[in-house]
Amino acid sequence: MNISIGGLDALLDLVKPLDDLPGDDTGREKFRRFLKNNVREVGQIRDFVEECLRKSGDQYSRAFQDLVNYVGQLLGFEVTFGRYKGTPGKSGFDGYWRSPSDNGLHVVVEVKTTEVYAIKTATLMGYIHDLVSEKKIPDADSAIGLYVVGRPDPEVSQLENNIIAEKKTNVLRIISADSLLSLAEMMKGEFDFSHEDALAILRPSSPTIDPVVDLMGRLVAARHPEGPTAQPVAVPEPTEEGGVVYWLTPVKGDKSQTAEEVIEPLVGENGIYAFSETTPGRQRLKPGDWICFYATGKGVIAHARVTSKPEKKPHRAVRNAKKYDWTFRVDRTRLYVETPVMIDAPMRGKLQAFHGRDPDKSWAWFVQCTRDISERDFKTLTLV
């Protein structure tokens, strides 16, 4: 199938239902072949994943499962795609990833779009035991179970607590889809990041932490090269127009709150927001600046005008006030959590920040930390 890359809706409409029917010409196989033959950039996968997480229905949850498995391939694993629905007598894993390295790790994957129902760890443990019994995995010590979760949810906290209480931290892991995509971006980008590095992160921690520290050091070095042959790192100049600086800051949900639940009481009700000690731009933020708020996986959900400099003054409305203790006031707030402005490929093509860049390539750099943006980009993202 040779078509140009467009929105996920158009693609799913073309391949028709994703199901478990046998055959090489099914919608399932067409979709997976399309990913393999046409999707090269992690940014494209991120767009598809975010579309799956914004919408509901079997087509989107099944496409999300396939996309997660495709990311496993980008991370260097040999991937066996699982079934969409459990069937008596057949193993119901969502994905089985086998590392080709000498000390290969076997990863049995369970994909969760979001957690409305409690997750039973026995299910994933059962898939591992089944694959060991079938001799596909040599022994249980060579395997881990990996939950890939689309959206943070209180049930994920429950799952984490269960894993700890059941003393299964040596075999079960949880990762968000956003973090999994970030690993793939590091492997595809300018970082010295390999399949072995991905294994070091996914494996249960060993007594020696040197490999992870070494990995972190190499990533920092890749960001800030030194030496006579190194190319200079481009540092963008602050964007100031008439003394006003325009900001974009990411807002992530956690185990107890969605991004919307973070923004609404702070910006909407109390007229404040909070940064941590290390938030980029904290010392430059000033009254008269404007700031917009990006919810991971959804889009820009609010904007406001800054009316005070950040002060080290924890506020009772901030859930994690010990970490986010630099607060500042805002006014002229506008919330649009129900109709977020998506930063999809067409939108990225309109932004000055992406001029000279391929908008389909890895783009999470734009929303992963607080940054100043142009007035034009701010107005485009906030529909001002």
The CATH superfamily of the largest domain is Type II restriction endonuclease, HindIII
Estimate what percentage of residues fall within beta strands.
15-25%
Question: Averaged pLDDT, please?
Answer: 86
- The secondary-structure class comes to alpha+beta
Largest sheet, if any? 8 strands, mixed
From the spread of the alpha carbons, the general shape counts as globular
Might you state the CATH topology name of the largest domain? Restriction Endonuclease
Low-confidence stretches: 224-242
Order of helices and strands: HHHHEEEHEHEHHHEEHEEEEEHEH
Cα end-to-end separation: 41 Å
What is the annotated CATH architecture of the largest domain?
A: 3-Layer(aba) Sandwich
How many distinct helices?
12
**Number of distinct beta strands:** 13
CATH class of the largest domain: Alpha Beta
Radius of gyration: 22 Å
The proportion of residues forming helix, as a percent range, comes to 25-40%
Number of domains: 2
Summarize the structure.
By secondary structure, this protein is an alpha+beta fold. It has helices at 8-15, 27-38, 42-54, 58-74, 121-133, 154-165, 177-188, 195-202, 210-223, 259-270, 345-350, 375-382; strands at 78-81, 95-98, 106-112, 143-149, 172-176, 240-241, 244-251, 272-275, 290-295, 299-306, 311-312, 326-335, 371-373. Strand 4 (143-149), helix 6 and strand 5 (172-176) form a beta-alpha-beta unit.
